[in-house]
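[job 0412] stage=fold_complex status=start
inputs:
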Amino acid sequence: MDTLTFIVSLLYQYADTIAILVLSAIGLFIIFGMMGVINMAHGEMMMIGAYITSFSYYAGIPTPIAVIFGGLGAGVVGIVLERVIVRRFYGQLLASLVATWGISLILSQGALLVLGPLIKSVPTPFGSAGSDDLTFSYYRLFLFGVAILLIAGVWALFKVTRFGLRARATMQDPGSARALGVDVRQVYALTFGLGAALAGLAGGLFALTSTIGPFYGQNYTPQAFITVVVGGGAELISGLLLSVLSLGAIKTIVTNQVNILLGQVAMLVFALILIRLMPSGISDWVERRRLQSRRG
Amino acid sequence: MQQKHRSYRRWLGAGLALAIAAGFSSVVTGAVQAADDGPIKICVIDDASGDFAPAVIPKTMGAKLAVEEINKAGGINGRKIELIHYDGQSDPKRHQEFAQKCVLDDEANVVMAGYTSSEREAARAVAVENKTIFWHNNQGEGGIADKYSFFTGLIPEQQILPGVEYMIKKFGPRMYILAADYGFGQVSALWTHVAAGIYGGEIVGEEFIPLGNAEYAATIQNVQKAKPDFMVHFLVGANQGQFYPQALAAGLKIPAVSTVNLKQGYEHKRFPPPALEGLYVPVAFIEEIAQETEAAKKYVADMKAMFPDIAYVNSPSRCAYVAVYMMAMAWKKAGTTETDKVIAALESGLAFEAPEGRVFLDPATHHMTLHARMAQVQADHSIKFVHDFGPIEPWWLRKLGVNLVSKNDGKQYLPWDDPEFAKYKKQ
Amino acid sequence: MIRTNALLDRLLGRINGPLEPGRSPPFWLLVVAAVVVLALLPTFLSRYELLNFSNFLSNVFLALGLCLIWGFGGILSLGQSAFLGLGGYAYGIVGINLIEIHGNTWLALLAGLGFPVIVAAALGWMMFYARLKGVYVAILMLVVTLLIETFLNQTAGQGWFIGNAHLGGNNGLGRFSGVIREPPSLTLGFGAETMVVFKGKTQAFYYLVLGLGVLCYLGLRAFVNSRIGHVLVAIREDPDRTEALGYDVRALQLSVFCLSALLASMSGILYVSWGNFITPNVFGVFYNILPVIWVAVAGRKSLTATIVGTVFLVWLSQKLAIQGDIAFVVLGFILLAGMMLLPEGVVTGLGERIGRVFDRLGIGRHGARHGR
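[job 0412] stage=fold_complex status=done
writing structure:
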């Protein structure tokens, strides 16, 4: 096939991969970056979003609203969980891992028990375009657009709003923030809720292009974790962007040139290398470079 | 400092608590020895959770219906059948553990287990090692010739060969294979190569998809680049089924034949139309066969009556149903549950009116002669049966000279073990 | 006071210390009693119960390895089951190839123990000498184990043979290739007369696991209470200060990491010997989180608590799985409740509470002596 078609096709696949990575990881990023909590129930937040989306859709609610409901619902669940359980484990990274895994078990297996192994899928909107040679799904491109919007939105939230200011202060130094009058506990609760809501939103969006079941989120969780850890928590947006762009690139190129399996393997190997080279994540490395250049 | 000196009491306490717990549970666990006039035990290991649960839950229901019907009709010479069910959790390791429980603890008279070949082999090895009858109630990659193992589902010579032949005649010789990357997918791909060789097909692309993979953007574009006349699908599990809505969304319009999809995971009920339009599936039984035979109509009605929540009366459910009846016939004929005598009864040439038509258990190969039809999914996801293949015997193992009545091969044959097919090996 | 002779004193001195709770003579009496009970168990258990219990016990080494690096070393690894898998596969592959030639599995055993340690050394060198911390070690190990799982899952094709051993992909080692060539059970001995095959359902296997378990327990206690053990705990508490005091932190972390890999591989080899079966699933997220759950819930800073808690939790998981539906939900609640109510570990915490009850009832000389 000619070069132009090849490049377009590759870019499309790249955009697709990035969209999936961003959407599945952004919620986790916020939670990890803010509180250093490993939220093993992240996949279940996605699941809740997907379920709410599906039920809403089949109750007659228009698709976009159904997806938003999914996000909101997951956010509410997130806030409740944070209040009741997660907040006892701040500062105890590993205990929070175990505790959130307990939550994950309860939610996913509970969903299986109560609602069965499969939920009806929602039809993918927008259709497709392209020539005889190559076709594209508009919806996958739409997901890419949403991913970009979300990144921009989160950036704006943290950089521009007062909540964002308080949140960043808390991230940097909770003690000082508290001394300055920031309600740290409220910031944590809202941030966790935001992270859960983003996960739910992602879940709802993916529900329009996937099978939905109780363990649906668990497919995305390992990938999300790796993206988050590689990105590092120091600087949210740059960490997320750099991590997603680099991991996504490797995965896309290798999948395209070889096969799905090696694409996955290559991404993991690359993550390994990145972690080794930048032991506190990409964003931390970037931060240090920036500080160094300012000094020198 | 007092803390450390008190520590022994800590352990005393913990030790006591655990000893009590363990003792209590041992008493509770103690398996009741089955008396000779007690119930006959069928042990079923089916996934009620995990990736394969949607396809396997109806399978357990099929077995339960059969047990219910037989017990209502008086059981086996007065003895009732008891169905023990363990959730294999879509995990081969669990299948091995539960098979051991079935055989050594519950002392079941027969084990029916496994959806995927990985699960099946994990359980079957335990059953065979302990000389217990084993049934695999699903379609498979075939080739297993073993004295203790029996099969109720379609095997390659009954679906891949006729299915691919049909597609080549209808659409042309170029085909693209998408197969799940594990035993079943690998062997089915091998058989597709054989079919291509025999019927003049050409394989223009082949991809093995990791189990659990749900992203197909690259695959879809690869298929488009290759421009095949049709695709051959062996996509297994809820995640691999994602291919269909994604292909639809991407506007992929190439017809496909699948021996896996539709009849197990009922994708046509789960994905909104017209995601599966144009999919061809060779089947022995699916819920829509009720359009074709009276027996199927009754079976589907009975299933829905007993299990109102059933998502779809799929092929594995009928396989389990048939298997239970086969065992019942064998137990009645043998007059005992002694394994050797029951196997002899199974090998005596049993026939049964399955929902899709008459089936026959071949003594030499322990597989069944099944009536196959080609189903085509319509735009609204209804099913039309466009071709009747008629009853197909499990002829391949016979061709290799297998006769389990006289000799126990105890192994699995692959297509390359057949000298005639070896020449179709992948280039 | 119970009189002990000099040798016993010295022995007790080595395996008793402030870092492992449980040191007094009554404690050891309890331990001895427990071992005696366990040794007598096969006479009371049915064939199936023995088979099952042997499987539970063989998980102990995996848990002990994690307890060592996490509880004592402060390093959480989400990839301990990877070493179990590497050990099992290495043992299985060499075993399949050599069992007919040699008639025993000594070399396979060596491979099964050695290969994971080599991998651990390489990984550990990479991690600790880059000063990777906390969650990054955990995630890096997770990445490694997922890598291995991804790779092994696609080895079902006809080409994936190492000698006579077919990797088999998701179907399991040696289980799918036409001719079934399973990994052999441990077959050890010196000459044809003394050869013992440690198949899962045999008493020989049970006693092997029990014996190894006791040896490891005592050995690890000695290790933990030795000078090196104290340095390890110092590293856990404050690595920088320990390094400032002149100890080679990274070398010790690496060594302990390798030791934990060795322990995990023991569980792997025993598992393969038990069931002649292993699949890439053991490299998955679930199987790597399991030991974390066992150790966290049991009490990660105590070897004794780890052993007791692990056996109990594994037993409980299976019991629940057999009940079916509500199994995992219950497990989830137990986990949550455990972490919220008894963060130091359920076994440790429970034991402590019961101990306090005994105290109030005045049971035990020590309590009375100290007048509490």
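[job 0412] summary: DSSP finds 14 helices and 16 strands in chain B.
[job 0412] exit 0
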